[in-house]
Amino acid sequence: MVEDIFINKFLADMINLTNTTDTEYGLKDYLSRMFGIENITVKMFDTERFNQSSLEAYISNTKKSYIDNEINEYSAFPELLNYRNNGYSSCLIAPIKVDNRVIGEVNLFSTHPNKFTPDISSLIELSVTLFGLNLYYSSEKKKVERITSYFDASFNSSVPQALVNSAGDILKFNKQFVNLIGSYPEDKKIASAIGVNFSDLYDLTDGKYIQKAIKNGKPVRINSYKIRDSLIHITLIDQSEHELLSSINSAINLQNQFLILILDDKLDIRNFAGSLYDKFNEIHDLLTGKNLNSFVGEANGKLIDESLKNQQSFKSTLQIEFPNKSINGRISIEKCSMGYAAMITNIEKELYAENLDNTLDDFINTTTDMIIKVNEFGYIEDCNDPTVKNLGYPDKSGLIGKEIKSIYYEGDLETFDTNFSFIRKGEPINSISSNMIKRDGDSIPVIYSIRRIDDKSSQKYILIIHSLETKRELQDMESKLHKSDIQAKHFKSASDLKSEFIYDITHELKTPLTNIKGFAKLMKDGEFGQINEDQASYLDTILEESDRLMLIISQVLDAAKLEADKVKLDVREVNLKELYSNPSIKSMEEAAKNKGLSFTWDIAYDVPNIDADLNRLIQVLVNLIGNSIKFTESGGITVKIFKKSRKSVQFEVNDTGIGISDEDKRKIFKKFYQAPKRGLVKPDGTGTGLGLAITKDIVSLHGGKIRFDSKLGKGTKFWFTLPITYKNKASNKA
């Protein structure tokens, strides 16, 4: 048992430690010296907790410490094997808890087995608990400091305000508060100052307020904000100015584009009324006391200050950013006895009308149809370039000023006059067939529509005219597209024949190659007589090249089968935790180690079984791991498997190799494309350039997606996701 005197000293040291400026460093240093622990780290979790390891997830979910006094290959969490490989024998992972939430963990690793006895573990967990409490205290302290800073700044504003405790005592107030109530009460009670007690003020929540006349007869609006159960913050709004503004508002019958502001000498808003008043009523306190310049931007604020200083007035059009509302406003400010009076006129509708004219002009100038603008007397005011081009004029000056009827075919004029009489009454005219007269006298078949536009002082008409020659061009284009579609189908058929040919020829190549390999092996084994060392070496070369050729043929055959739609998945339930023991994966691990690379297999503890074709899944992993080995000179390869969501599992293959250039990234999944091996001291042999294309097709057949990320010279990460449940069990043909 740990002696009581040791425990008392430990607690005293920990309490002193929590009062230091760098508690985290002090905690690690103290525990290291006190218990002889070689590796101590503190990790704080992200709020979203993305990409947590299985051990971190365990700590977060259980809120308990994890102790392993004999780290080995049978440890519950695979990530501990990395520490075992680095010489550590025991560990304690303790959660950092704040307000019953796990916000991080302290990781302690020792090279000695059975280091973390119950006594030592309980003391370490106690120290981590104190560390968490210190974090909570620091957070609360900063919160209080922010609130204090807020009130210090708030009490410097022009709004009368005070802090009141549950006994009704005024704890703090500003001079505007005293100026409004007339004199400060001797008993320092809020009831004596404004005639309202603490309990009534405490109940003012959800936007409620009290409006009354205080002892000096001034009408005020009282708002209250609860800081805590025993403390409230109140503000007073002088309503005498509001009553004056309301009278002005009624007298001039403001419409919905005006706002009147009463400002003090510093341009702080004392009150406001007008058309926007109701819309801002719910945020009255957010405007009152704020400076006008804070809503118009720094540059405009300087212009206003300079103009008021020199001329005691200001007039301009500005973009004004009120809380939750932005307007284009015409603003006028004049000096008055109260400070300044400002009127803001919302000119959104004026700008909208101007924009309509501009938009119409833009439409006329950008559309490919003929557009003609006609005045109320039937004469052309403007037209666009397609009109000039289709009617054969050198420029629009030859059309402007002409009567619109003069460019229509004589036989269609009666119908045209009838349509114009309808459009003058406001009825739209749509898709009327007619003929127009070109400059050289030829006619052009068209379909036209007419719309009336009510301008500020007159009526105008817009003719939208579609040339049927354009329609014929579109029909020709459709005919060409149809021919292209037939050609595409022909090419598709040719592509299918090519795939069938490749499939057949590669299949036929496998039989003689198998015979060559088989007889070469028999010869090496001495079935046809004793052979010498040179002959054995030649036969080894034949066998190695046969294996390489067989791999190439298999990849070409796979690619052909995928392209010819002949791949069927043998979907069964796959235990992902057993993948590591697969001979193909083991051979990849052996190949990595033979090249001097590290190989890490990291599978999360909560990974479920999935529906997949095991052989094809192994093929995908071998392709990705094999590429990593091929393009990596030093460092290592890491394979991770974890549950990405409720419906999918993610596989990752990371390496520290030469990376992929931006140019190669666009081609990496193309068939027969081979990335250059720039940067490799000893480049491996070339492949077929089919591995990644086949990998992508296999992942797609499973209903998954594959992605990659790489930086040249810094390594590559390939990852793919597979659904936990295969959706096409009934028919798993590609």
TrEMBL record:
<dbReference type="InterPro" id="IPR004358">
    <property type="entry name" value="Sig_transdc_His_kin-like_C"/>
</dbReference>
<dbReference type="GO" id="GO:0009927">
    <property type="term" value="F:histidine phosphotransfer kinase activity"/>
</dbReference>
<dbReference type="Pfam" id="PF02518">
    <property type="entry name" value="HATPase_c"/>
</dbReference>
<feature type="domain" description="Histidine kinase">
    <location>
        <begin position="504"/>
        <end position="726"/>
    </location>
</feature>
<keyword id="KW-0808">Transferase</keyword>
<dbReference type="InterPro" id="IPR003594">
    <property type="entry name" value="HATPase_dom"/>
</dbReference>
<dbReference type="Pfam" id="PF13426">
    <property type="entry name" value="PAS_9"/>
</dbReference>
<dbReference type="InterPro" id="IPR029016">
    <property type="entry name" value="GAF-like_dom_sf"/>
</dbReference>
<dbReference type="InterPro" id="IPR035965">
    <property type="entry name" value="PAS-like_dom_sf"/>
</dbReference>
<protein>
    <recommendedName>
        <fullName>histidine kinase</fullName>
        <ecNumber>2.7.13.3</ecNumber>
    </recommendedName>
</protein>
<dbReference type="GO" id="GO:0005886">
    <property type="term" value="C:plasma membrane"/>
</dbReference>
<keyword id="KW-0597">Phosphoprotein</keyword>
<dbReference type="InterPro" id="IPR003661">
    <property type="entry name" value="HisK_dim/P_dom"/>
</dbReference>
<dbReference type="InterPro" id="IPR000014">
    <property type="entry name" value="PAS"/>
</dbReference>
<keyword id="KW-0418">Kinase</keyword>
<dbReference type="InterPro" id="IPR036097">
    <property type="entry name" value="HisK_dim/P_sf"/>
</dbReference>
<dbReference type="InterPro" id="IPR005467">
    <property type="entry name" value="His_kinase_dom"/>
</dbReference>
<dbReference type="GO" id="GO:0000155">
    <property type="term" value="F:phosphorelay sensor kinase activity"/>
</dbReference>
<dbReference type="Pfam" id="PF00512">
    <property type="entry name" value="HisKA"/>
</dbReference>
<dbReference type="InterPro" id="IPR036890">
    <property type="entry name" value="HATPase_C_sf"/>
</dbReference>
